[in-house]
User: What shape does this take?
Amino acid sequence: MARVAVLTESQFVTRRQPMATVTTLRDRGHTVDLLIAGRVAARLGDLGHWTGYDVLLTRGSSTELVSLARWLTSYGIPVVNGPDAITTVTDRSAQVLALSRAGVPVPETWLARPRSLSGLPADTFPLAVHELAAHPVGCPQIARNPADLAALTGTGAIALVQRIPAQPSFDVTLVGVGAHVWTAPRRQPPRTPGGGSPVLTPELESLALYVAGVLGLDLYQIDLVGTAAGPMVTGVHAFPDYEAMSGADAMIADLVQCRGSQPWSQPGSQPGPAGRTAAPKPAAPNQQAAPNQPDGVLANVCAPRLH
Assistant: This one.
Protein backbone atom coordinates (compact mmCIF):
# COMPACT_ATOMS: atom_id res chain seq x y z
CA MET A 1 0.00 0.00 0.00
CA ALA A 2 1.19 3.51 -0.81
CA ARG A 3 1.61 6.49 1.45
CA VAL A 4 0.21 9.57 -0.27
CA ALA A 5 0.66 13.25 0.57
CA VAL A 6 -2.20 15.42 -0.69
CA LEU A 7 -1.03 19.03 -0.62
CA THR A 8 -3.85 21.52 -1.03
CA GLU A 9 -5.31 24.79 0.26
CA SER A 10 -7.99 25.32 2.91
CA GLN A 11 -10.53 26.46 0.30
CA PHE A 12 -10.50 23.00 -1.31
CA VAL A 13 -11.12 20.99 1.87
CA THR A 14 -14.88 21.33 1.33
CA ARG A 15 -14.73 20.87 -2.45
CA ARG A 16 -15.35 17.68 -4.37
CA GLN A 17 -11.70 17.47 -5.30
CA PRO A 18 -9.29 16.51 -3.92
CA MET A 19 -11.53 15.10 -1.17
CA ALA A 20 -13.21 12.47 -3.38
CA THR A 21 -9.78 11.19 -4.39
CA VAL A 22 -8.66 11.13 -0.74
CA THR A 23 -11.71 9.00 0.13
CA THR A 24 -11.18 6.64 -2.80
CA LEU A 25 -7.52 6.07 -1.95
CA ARG A 26 -8.30 5.47 1.73
CA ASP A 27 -11.07 3.02 0.78
CA ARG A 28 -8.44 1.09 -1.17
CA GLY A 29 -6.27 0.81 1.93
CA HIS A 30 -3.70 3.49 1.17
CA THR A 31 -2.44 5.90 3.82
CA VAL A 32 -3.37 9.46 2.81
CA ASP A 33 -2.25 12.57 4.69
CA LEU A 34 -4.16 15.76 3.87
CA LEU A 35 -1.72 18.67 4.16
CA ILE A 36 -2.75 22.32 4.01
CA ALA A 37 -0.23 24.66 2.40
CA GLY A 38 0.99 27.23 4.89
CA ARG A 39 0.45 24.88 7.84
CA VAL A 40 3.27 22.43 7.10
CA ALA A 41 7.01 22.97 6.91
CA ALA A 42 10.07 21.56 5.21
CA ARG A 43 13.75 22.23 5.90
CA LEU A 44 16.06 22.85 2.96
CA GLY A 45 18.45 19.93 2.58
CA ASP A 46 16.61 17.78 5.14
CA LEU A 47 13.43 16.09 3.95
CA GLY A 48 12.87 14.32 7.25
CA HIS A 49 9.41 12.69 7.36
CA TRP A 50 8.73 13.64 3.74
CA THR A 51 10.88 10.68 2.64
CA GLY A 52 8.10 8.40 3.88
CA TYR A 53 5.75 9.43 1.08
CA ASP A 54 5.51 7.56 -2.20
CA VAL A 55 3.73 10.28 -4.18
CA LEU A 56 2.54 13.88 -3.92
CA LEU A 57 -0.85 15.04 -5.23
CA THR A 58 -1.39 18.80 -5.42
CA ARG A 59 -4.42 21.03 -5.83
CA GLY A 60 -4.06 24.79 -5.54
CA SER A 61 -1.86 27.59 -6.85
CA SER A 62 -0.84 29.65 -3.83
CA THR A 63 2.76 30.71 -3.33
CA GLU A 64 2.97 28.50 -0.23
CA LEU A 65 1.76 25.41 -2.09
CA VAL A 66 3.88 25.92 -5.20
CA SER A 67 7.03 26.68 -3.20
CA LEU A 68 6.73 23.59 -1.02
CA ALA A 69 5.86 21.37 -3.98
CA ARG A 70 8.90 22.70 -5.85
CA TRP A 71 11.19 21.84 -2.92
CA LEU A 72 9.81 18.31 -2.68
CA THR A 73 9.89 17.56 -6.40
CA SER A 74 13.46 18.86 -6.61
CA TYR A 75 14.40 15.88 -4.44
CA GLY A 76 12.62 13.49 -6.78
CA ILE A 77 9.30 12.64 -5.14
CA PRO A 78 6.81 11.55 -7.83
CA VAL A 79 4.04 14.13 -8.23
CA VAL A 80 0.65 14.50 -9.89
CA ASN A 81 0.38 18.06 -11.25
CA GLY A 82 3.81 19.48 -10.50
CA PRO A 83 4.70 23.03 -9.43
CA ASP A 84 6.04 24.25 -12.77
CA ALA A 85 2.85 23.16 -14.52
CA ILE A 86 0.73 24.90 -11.89
CA THR A 87 2.73 28.12 -12.19
CA THR A 88 2.51 28.20 -15.98
CA VAL A 89 -1.22 27.54 -16.04
CA THR A 90 -2.00 30.07 -13.30
CA ASP A 91 -0.03 32.84 -15.01
CA ARG A 92 -2.31 33.55 -17.95
CA SER A 93 0.44 35.29 -19.93
CA ALA A 94 2.85 32.36 -19.42
CA GLN A 95 0.11 29.92 -20.36
CA VAL A 96 -0.77 31.57 -23.67
CA LEU A 97 2.93 32.03 -24.50
CA ALA A 98 3.69 28.35 -23.89
CA LEU A 99 0.74 27.26 -26.01
CA SER A 100 1.53 29.65 -28.83
CA ARG A 101 5.20 28.61 -28.95
CA ALA A 102 4.09 24.98 -29.16
CA GLY A 103 1.86 25.71 -32.14
CA VAL A 104 -1.46 25.51 -30.31
CA PRO A 105 -4.11 27.82 -31.82
CA VAL A 106 -4.97 30.59 -29.32
CA PRO A 107 -6.95 33.84 -29.68
CA GLU A 108 -5.32 37.04 -30.89
CA THR A 109 -3.71 38.38 -27.72
CA TRP A 110 -2.25 41.62 -26.38
CA LEU A 111 -0.30 42.50 -23.23
CA ALA A 112 -1.37 46.10 -22.68
CA ARG A 113 -3.23 48.59 -20.54
CA PRO A 114 -6.78 47.89 -21.78
CA ARG A 115 -7.68 51.56 -22.27
CA SER A 116 -4.75 51.90 -24.68
CA LEU A 117 -6.56 49.47 -27.01
CA SER A 118 -9.76 51.50 -27.26
CA GLY A 119 -8.70 52.63 -30.76
CA LEU A 120 -8.93 49.11 -32.18
CA PRO A 121 -11.36 48.64 -35.09
CA ALA A 122 -14.91 47.79 -34.08
CA ASP A 123 -14.71 44.37 -35.74
CA THR A 124 -11.93 43.39 -33.30
CA PHE A 125 -14.46 43.18 -30.47
CA PRO A 126 -15.57 41.55 -28.21
CA LEU A 127 -12.44 41.30 -26.07
CA ALA A 128 -11.78 39.37 -22.86
CA VAL A 129 -9.65 41.29 -20.35
CA HIS A 130 -7.73 39.11 -17.86
CA GLU A 131 -6.14 40.80 -14.84
CA LEU A 132 -2.62 39.43 -14.53
CA ALA A 133 -2.47 40.09 -10.79
CA ALA A 134 -5.76 38.31 -10.04
CA HIS A 135 -5.35 35.38 -7.65
CA PRO A 136 -7.00 33.04 -7.77
CA VAL A 137 -7.59 33.44 -11.48
CA GLY A 138 -11.10 34.78 -11.98
CA CYS A 139 -13.43 35.40 -14.87
CA PRO A 140 -12.33 38.06 -17.36
CA GLN A 141 -14.13 41.33 -17.93
CA ILE A 142 -15.77 41.52 -21.35
CA ALA A 143 -15.55 44.58 -23.58
CA ARG A 144 -18.01 44.44 -26.47
CA ASN A 145 -16.97 47.75 -28.01
CA PRO A 146 -14.35 50.53 -27.55
CA ALA A 147 -16.59 52.35 -25.06
CA ASP A 148 -16.80 49.24 -22.87
CA LEU A 149 -13.03 48.93 -22.93
CA ALA A 150 -12.51 52.52 -21.84
CA ALA A 151 -15.08 52.14 -19.06
CA LEU A 152 -13.71 48.92 -17.52
CA THR A 153 -12.75 49.23 -13.88
CA GLY A 154 -9.27 48.38 -12.65
CA THR A 155 -7.68 48.72 -16.09
CA GLY A 156 -4.74 50.94 -15.15
CA ALA A 157 -2.33 48.00 -15.00
CA ILE A 158 -1.06 45.78 -17.77
CA ALA A 159 -3.56 43.05 -18.60
CA LEU A 160 -3.80 40.14 -20.97
CA VAL A 161 -6.44 40.99 -23.56
CA GLN A 162 -7.78 38.37 -25.96
CA ARG A 163 -10.08 38.60 -28.93
CA ILE A 164 -13.18 36.42 -28.52
CA PRO A 165 -13.86 34.41 -31.68
CA ALA A 166 -17.13 35.52 -33.25
CA GLN A 167 -19.86 32.95 -33.99
CA PRO A 168 -17.84 29.80 -33.18
CA SER A 169 -19.10 26.51 -34.55
CA PHE A 170 -18.81 25.01 -31.07
CA ASP A 171 -17.91 25.99 -27.51
CA VAL A 172 -16.80 23.12 -25.29
CA THR A 173 -14.93 22.29 -22.10
CA LEU A 174 -12.81 19.15 -21.99
CA VAL A 175 -11.51 17.59 -18.80
CA GLY A 176 -8.80 14.99 -18.54
CA VAL A 177 -7.08 12.54 -16.22
CA GLY A 178 -3.76 11.50 -17.69
CA ALA A 179 -4.53 10.16 -21.17
CA HIS A 180 -8.31 10.01 -20.67
CA VAL A 181 -10.44 12.92 -21.89
CA TRP A 182 -14.15 13.73 -21.57
CA THR A 183 -16.45 16.54 -22.61
CA ALA A 184 -17.65 18.29 -19.45
CA PRO A 185 -21.42 18.67 -18.92
CA ARG A 186 -22.46 22.26 -19.48
CA ARG A 187 -23.77 24.12 -16.43
CA GLN A 188 -24.41 27.44 -18.17
CA PRO A 189 -25.05 28.82 -21.68
CA PRO A 190 -22.14 28.85 -24.18
CA ARG A 191 -19.47 31.43 -23.40
CA THR A 192 -19.67 32.77 -26.95
CA PRO A 193 -22.67 33.38 -29.24
CA GLY A 194 -23.59 30.41 -31.41
CA GLY A 195 -21.32 27.94 -29.66
CA GLY A 196 -22.80 24.47 -29.32
CA SER A 197 -21.40 21.38 -27.60
CA PRO A 198 -19.78 18.82 -29.92
CA VAL A 199 -19.05 15.19 -29.20
CA LEU A 200 -15.45 14.32 -28.37
CA THR A 201 -13.79 13.79 -31.74
CA PRO A 202 -10.31 12.29 -32.29
CA GLU A 203 -9.13 15.77 -33.32
CA LEU A 204 -10.30 17.37 -30.06
CA GLU A 205 -8.94 14.51 -27.97
CA SER A 206 -5.55 14.74 -29.70
CA LEU A 207 -5.44 18.50 -29.15
CA ALA A 208 -6.35 18.11 -25.46
CA LEU A 209 -3.60 15.55 -24.88
CA TYR A 210 -1.09 17.71 -26.71
CA VAL A 211 -1.99 20.78 -24.63
CA ALA A 212 -1.72 18.75 -21.40
CA GLY A 213 1.68 17.49 -22.52
CA VAL A 214 2.95 20.95 -23.44
CA LEU A 215 1.97 22.32 -20.02
CA GLY A 216 2.99 19.22 -18.04
CA LEU A 217 -0.49 18.65 -16.59
CA ASP A 218 -1.89 15.33 -15.36
CA LEU A 219 -5.29 16.67 -14.21
CA TYR A 220 -6.68 19.41 -16.41
CA GLN A 221 -9.56 21.35 -17.94
CA ILE A 222 -9.34 22.85 -21.43
CA ASP A 223 -11.78 25.35 -22.95
CA LEU A 224 -12.07 25.33 -26.74
CA VAL A 225 -14.10 26.98 -29.47
CA GLY A 226 -14.51 26.05 -33.11
CA THR A 227 -13.34 28.53 -35.73
CA ALA A 228 -13.08 28.46 -39.53
CA ALA A 229 -9.43 27.50 -39.13
CA GLY A 230 -10.19 24.69 -36.65
CA PRO A 231 -10.33 24.27 -32.84
CA MET A 232 -8.88 27.09 -30.74
CA VAL A 233 -7.85 26.86 -27.06
CA THR A 234 -9.27 29.76 -25.02
CA GLY A 235 -8.11 28.65 -21.56
CA VAL A 236 -6.53 25.87 -19.51
CA HIS A 237 -7.00 25.10 -15.80
CA ALA A 238 -5.36 22.61 -13.46
CA PHE A 239 -7.25 19.96 -11.44
CA PRO A 240 -10.98 20.77 -11.88
CA ASP A 241 -13.69 19.28 -9.65
CA TYR A 242 -14.76 16.63 -12.20
CA GLU A 243 -18.39 17.11 -11.20
CA ALA A 244 -20.78 14.61 -12.80
CA MET A 245 -17.85 12.84 -14.48
CA SER A 246 -18.49 9.13 -14.01
CA GLY A 247 -15.39 7.18 -13.07
CA ALA A 248 -13.15 10.23 -12.65
CA ASP A 249 -12.49 9.66 -8.93
CA ALA A 250 -11.31 6.11 -9.55
CA MET A 251 -9.15 7.19 -12.49
CA ILE A 252 -7.45 9.92 -10.45
CA ALA A 253 -6.81 7.40 -7.68
CA ASP A 254 -5.40 4.94 -10.25
CA LEU A 255 -3.08 7.63 -11.59
CA VAL A 256 -1.86 8.51 -8.07
CA GLN A 257 -1.29 4.82 -7.28
CA CYS A 258 0.61 4.25 -10.48
CA ARG A 259 2.77 7.34 -10.02
CA GLY A 260 3.43 6.28 -6.43
CA SER A 261 4.75 2.91 -7.61
CA GLN A 262 7.60 4.69 -9.40
CA PRO A 263 10.89 5.19 -7.55
CA TRP A 264 12.01 8.65 -6.54
CA SER A 265 14.19 10.20 -9.23
CA GLN A 266 17.73 11.11 -8.29
CA PRO A 267 18.35 14.68 -7.11
CA GLY A 268 19.90 16.71 -9.88
CA SER A 269 18.35 14.57 -12.65
CA GLN A 270 16.59 17.61 -14.12
CA PRO A 271 12.97 16.95 -13.16
CA GLY A 272 10.48 17.75 -15.93
CA PRO A 273 7.40 19.98 -15.74
CA ALA A 274 5.45 17.50 -13.65
CA GLY A 275 8.34 16.51 -11.38
CA ARG A 276 9.49 13.61 -13.55
CA THR A 277 12.65 13.30 -15.59
CA ALA A 278 12.09 15.50 -18.62
CA ALA A 279 10.33 13.70 -21.47
CA PRO A 280 10.78 14.42 -25.18
CA LYS A 281 8.84 17.40 -26.50
CA PRO A 282 5.45 16.13 -27.68
CA ALA A 283 4.69 16.02 -31.37
CA ALA A 284 2.10 18.58 -32.44
CA PRO A 285 -1.36 17.16 -33.18
CA ASN A 286 -0.77 17.32 -36.95
CA GLN A 287 2.72 15.81 -36.78
CA GLN A 288 3.95 12.24 -36.47
CA ALA A 289 6.25 11.28 -33.61
CA ALA A 290 9.60 9.87 -34.65
CA PRO A 291 9.75 6.05 -34.88
CA ASN A 292 10.41 4.35 -31.54
CA GLN A 293 10.08 7.71 -29.77
CA PRO A 294 7.44 8.25 -27.06
CA ASP A 295 4.44 10.04 -28.54
CA GLY A 296 4.53 13.11 -26.30
CA VAL A 297 4.90 13.76 -22.60
CA LEU A 298 1.83 11.73 -21.66
CA ALA A 299 3.43 8.57 -23.04
CA ASN A 300 5.82 8.70 -20.08
CA VAL A 301 3.05 9.17 -17.54
CA CYS A 302 1.30 6.32 -15.75
CA ALA A 303 -2.12 6.28 -17.36
CA PRO A 304 -5.03 5.11 -15.19
CA ARG A 305 -6.65 1.83 -16.13
CA LEU A 306 -10.13 1.89 -17.63
CA HIS A 307 -13.08 0.66 -15.56
Observations:
- Residues 52 and 104 are 39 Å apart (CA to CA).
- Residues 188-195, 268-281, 287-300 have pLDDT under 50 and may be disordered.
